[in-house]
Amino acid sequence: MADNSNNITQIQPLAGTELMTRSAEVRAQYAKANPKSYSLFEKAKTSLPGANTRSVLHYSPFPVTIIRAKAAQVEDIDGHHYQDFLGEYTAGLYGHAHPVIVDAITKALANGLTFGGPNAVESKFAHLMCSRFAAVERLRFCNSGTESNVLALSAARAFTGRTDILVVDGSYHGSVLAFAGNSPLNLPFPTHRMTFNDSESAKQQILSLDNKLAAVLVEPMIGAGGCIPANPEFLTGLRHLTEQTGALLIFDEVMTSRLGASGLHSLYGITPDLVTFGKYLGGGLSFGAFGGRADILDRFDPARADAWPHAGTFNNNTLSLSAGFAGLNDIFGPDEADAFLVRGDTFRTSLADSIGGLGLPIHITGKGSMMAFHFCHNAPHAPYDVQRIPSELYELVHLSMMAKGQFHARRGMINLSLAMSDEMLETFKNTITEVMREFGELIERAALP
Ligand SMILES: Cc1ncc(COP(=O)(O)O)c(C=O)c1O
User: What span, in angstroms and rounded, lies between the C-alpha atoms of 133 and 265?
Assistant: First the structure.
């Protein structure tokens, strides 16, 4: 199915399966309900390719334009209100316009924005993150999760004097580090791929690459690829094998550092050499950071004769750092983070029970406040398992949920925020169970084996 039938008059039932027909019906209802969004979408196309400046924000037939958000609710330009279970792909942990974050930003604004010199908040925030995340002895700030991974990989290549990197097939680490398919925009690092949760494939790759391999980059739970947690043996194996061959182990915790008081590496009890961060840690503003072993990070000390350079005009921008510090220090302390992990696990279990009661081939995976649903008969173990599920199924559920005031990611990802009440969770659970029931027959027929 084309993903770009943007003209309302072109939204026709596609010949063929019932799935296509239902999909077209739901699209037509959606288009009718969102005329202002559609009009803005058409206008935006003249200057933004496909009316888009962040690929993941496009979904068929066209995305709604959001005009404001408060706590766990967003409002679109046609006046619809949604319960926000997208949670800005995990960056929205605090909910929208949290008073503590707004206050921190307002105070930072009043003192001017970029000073051209070190400021007081950068070291405060760095101390906090080093004390919070077990594997982080030293840290550097940057501006996005993509940047944090590019810098961690480049640092690993410089530190080891090696060239190649190993990643998980189907994983996502940023706009130029996208390993689902073959993005022509990816950085030209010599890159090899292993199968997630397949210790044998990892072992063969690492041993055969031997002293060419600079780094293994992995998410301890695959995020964009479907919220699939790693088997502990898989990660332990990576730790042992990288130690054995001298490659660095980098955990991408851009999404998962919200899981528990000290991130997912601590929950697994594994100390990677480097960890990368982003998303919620900027309190809702642009943010990235990478940290880890002091002997690696200290190579960035500008006073050293052999210092590595790391520029970035906005690396220490006071708005992101003030918002990020306030969030981690005043809202999401270690106890709150541990409690939120439990709350997420409890909700995921009850969601899985509710949907499971329908007897359909649907699996819910995830950890804590991050989860995803998959239309497949067997539980998925790797992103590859879920990336072949027909997109029309996700479209049906996504647009139908929006029609009922519930907003989650098109690909089936659900992220909780601290602003959500128990009542909201209950409503979401009941609504999605009803939607799945409505499309039960189609799901049964189109789900992956
Ligand atoms: C695991 C992971 N790493 C890196 C990134 C890139 O972060 P950013 O969008 O801030 O560049 C993302 C973004 O979704 C991500 O999910």
Answer: 9
